Structures are given as structure tokens and as C-alpha cells.
Amino acid sequence: MAQALMSTIARSGQGTGKPLVAIVGRANVGKSSLFNRIVGRRVAIVEDLPGTTRDRLFADTSWEGKDFTLIDTGGLEMKPLTARSQNIKDQVQAAVSAADVVLFVVDVRDGLVASDWDIADSLRGVSSPVILVANKADDIRHDSGAAEFNKLGFGEPIATSAHHGRNVPDMLDRIASLLPEPIGEEERVDYVKAAIVGRPNVGKSLLMNALLGEERAIVSDVPGTTRDSLDTIYRSADHTALLIDTAGVRRRGQVQPGIEYYSVLRTLRAIDRSDVSLLVIDGSEGVTAQDLHIAGYIHDAFKGMEILVNKWDLVGPEKQQEVSQRIEEKFKFVSYAPVAFISAKLGLGIDSIIPEAERIWRERQLRIPEESLSEHL
Q: Cα–Cα distance between 289 and 173 in angstroms, integer?
């Protein structure tokens, strides 16, 4: 293995990731309907029952040329009576802490209630701007009722109807005006930016250390040890790359409050920042639904991809063909992604990872000449 020289670039892992907009409020005020209206497709589960949304949902969207990631959250109870409610509260607070803009949604039909006051008090110390949205104002007759929410101290509310789309463009204009200016493009460099991604405990940090030839990230058998994204320059005689090591992405229902939730955001941002994502899966366990979910996100983000089947040394020779065939079938929707069978622990197959990432990166930079296109029109 080529000797690697490394240097830490950043620890936040955010880079040029999209700004975050979090939708918060008590249960059944129409947060998920508003989320769906903004995103433009039915993503969140919407029912006329309190507490339907239990986990956060993410979606990338844009308005007036400004891209951002929208986060839907569960109904917030500031004085939770159950462990589940406390979990939701922790997750909502994590979303608010990470957000660049917060949409505080209230129900104009219910009027100002005690829960709205409690949530408002919790948002007063937030450094990001808060937009007050008086939802369910289906027609002009409800607009006068929105004025009552001025008492919350977040300025004049925007009276909207997520169901009918009323005044939603005005709300989006306000969001766009408050989004931070994009961080300047990361310095144009002549090497690939590769994000090492995957669910917890598949060997991402071990792979990082194996590639670098020395221990850089903390390696542990405890899932979720790596919580921040770590940017590291890899250099060898023939290759240079920026490696982004990330925390594992759990299934939505298993994301723990607080710090692990930040890890999910950082992983998604790391994928957004990358040229090529190195998706690590555990060959000894086979393909899981979460592996496919992460591959889908990479695909939707229009990033290059390598699928690295780690722990191949733990798969018996009699099972290797079966596992290989199953991987090919499961990842058929990203059939363009090359698959490599490796062992980060033993260093098997890792020498070709960076050269392959470079090949994918350079191929993605190729442009078809206009004259060639015209010949096929």
C-alpha cells in the first residue's frame, strides 16, 4: 500500500452543504402538510390525528434559485409526559439548533394556546431567525385571527394554508431572504473529494485508517463511535484525494436524540460535498434496507458512487458467489456504480479504491461536444 500523508482540514463536515430550514410546532398544526407543499410531493405521512409525524423527514428543495434542506419534525411537547414525547422533544431541539431558519407553525383556527406560548419561550434563545406561520388560514376570513399571534413576539405571522397553497409563495420569499449566503465554493482542487459513508459499524473508520496507513480516526466495535465528519488529505506518489469520514446513518426510527441526529445531518452534507461517495456495506451481514436507502440518497444527489463490500474475509468461499449475486440484484438501480470486495482490517483490495474514485470523478467531468449532440438530434 502506498504511503499516505495526511492533514486534518476541518471537523464540522459542513463545508458547502445546503442551509437547513426546520419546521416546528405542536402536534396537528399542519407541519407535514406544509412540508409536502414546499417540497412539491407527498413525502410526509399526513393524517388528521395528533402525533402522526414521529421522526424527522428531510428533503432538498429550492426557491428563487436558493437551495436548502427542509426538515419536518414531530409535534413538540415542552413538558413531555412519556419517553416517546421526550425523545421527540430532544430531536426537535436538535433540529432547531442545526437550522439556519426556523418555521414556527401555529393553527389559526385553534387560536393562541398555552402550548404555543411554551414553544415560543423555548425559541427565544435561538440564534437563527424564526418565521411565525399561522397555518390553516384557508381564506381571507381567517387572516384577522392570525393577528392574535403577534403576542408571541416573533413579528407579524404569515397567514398560510398548506392545504390550498395560499400565501405559501410569500412565506418562501421570506425564507429565501433569510437564508445565509452560500459559502463560497470550496477551493477548486485537482483531486477527488470522496465521502466514506454507510450505516454504523460497517468499518468506515477502519477503512480510513487502512487507506492512510496510520490510525487517524477512532476505531471501536461500538456502533456510532465516529460522530463528526473528518476531512483528511490523502497523498501518495500517484494519487491525491480529500477523504471525508462520517458517522454511520441509522434507520430513521433508530436515530437517537441530540448528537446522533447531528451526525445524520453531517453525513447528508458530506455526501452533498463529495464528488464520489464510497458506500461501505458489511459483506458478512449482506445488503440491508439502510444500505439501499443511503445508495438512493447518493443517487438522488447526483454523486458518483463506489460500493465497497467490507469484511469480505468473514464471508466463506462457499457463500461469496451467492452474496455477490445478491448485491448485484439489490443495487440494480445504481448499476453504474462499481463494486469492490475488500477487507479494511486485512488491507485486502483497498489499493484500488482511490484510483477508482479518481476514474469516476474524471469521467463525470467529461462533456459531450455540442456537435456530437446535434448529430443525434
A: 37
Those residues with Cβ within 8 angstroms of residue 17's Cβ, 6 or more apart along the chain or in another chain: 69, 268, 269, 270, 272, 273
Q: What is the pLDDT of residues 207-249, one digit of tens each?
A: 988 888 865 444 444 444 333 445 677 888 788 888 887 754 4
* SS3 assignment for 152-187: HCCCCCEECECCCCECHHHHHHHHHHHCCCCCCCCC
**48-87 per-position pLDDT tens digit:** 444 443 444 677 788 988 888 888 887 878 777 777 777 6
Q: Among candidates 165, 208, 229, which has minimal Cα distance to 345?
A: 208
Q: Considering only CA atoms, which of 104, 208, 118 is closest in space to residue 158?
A: 104
pTM above 0.70, yes or no: no
d(CA 156, CA 345): 58
124: helix, strand or coil: coil
Q: Write the CB contacts of 330 (distance below 8 Å, at least 6 apart in sequence).
A: 287, 291, 292
Count other C-beta atoms under 10 Å from residue 129's C-beta: 16
C-alpha cell at 304: 458518483
C-alpha cell read off for 57: 423527514
